[in-house]
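Weekly puzzle thread! Below is a chain. First person to post its structure in token form gets bragging rights.
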Amino acid sequence: MARPELTLYQFPISHYCEKTRWNLDAKGIPYVIENLIPGPHRFVTKRLTKGGRGTVPVLVDRGTVVTDSTDIALHLERAHASAPALIPAGGPERERVLELETYFDEMAGKHVRRWVYATLFASGADIKPLMFGAFPLPLRLVGTVLLPVIKTAIRRQYALTPDKVEESRVKLLEGLDRLERETQGDPSRYLVGESLSIADITAASLFSPLVAAEGSPYALRPAEEVPKALAELRASVVARPAGQWLLRRYREDRTRVARGFGASATVANG
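Winning reply:
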């Protein structure tokens, strides 16, 4: 079998990278993964982007380099038109999908990440299996050595201060409220129309650390240490319609190719 033409450079634990993986999987587009260690990853991403962004995900699609999960989603709609459309081609539905994608990308992406990292770090839990479990042993050892530096960089980059962390807790709950309004409290409903869209993928993937859904990078591992604050928040989220919606999206949509919007909703074979 020929090697896929797309390569995704990523952190396995990143919820933004999970968003892009789900995006590719829902469109039925084959790809290969290159896992990167935080910190040294910049040598790779800076090379790929010719000195540009140092963040992940980075997608290389037949020579075209695309950064940012939203830009990747837009690129895939243009460059892989035969795959199921996750963004309507036009009209009010397109505007609505893009509006909700932007909202959940900015709100859930930022505030879930900050609150979860702060909670994990404050608890003293062993996060090495979560951070580096997807890597081969030599890179797991590298990650273990670099972990203090990585944690310092995360604290600085994501502003893990008490005031900001509390702000993020409030904001992520507001985001869950918005999700329930948009779905009318019905876990079976998609955000727009009758088909999975990039808005659904964005909300489900970026909130996924809060529910530890099976099929997500945050599913519970045997003997995993879960800080009390995180366990309590997860229990409260799962008990509400938004949490059930998140779990249902993973259960029903994470491992299958989407139906897609409109006439372009055909499954790609490669």
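Puzzle host: Confirmed. Bonus trivia for everyone else. The chain is about 55% helix and 5% strand.
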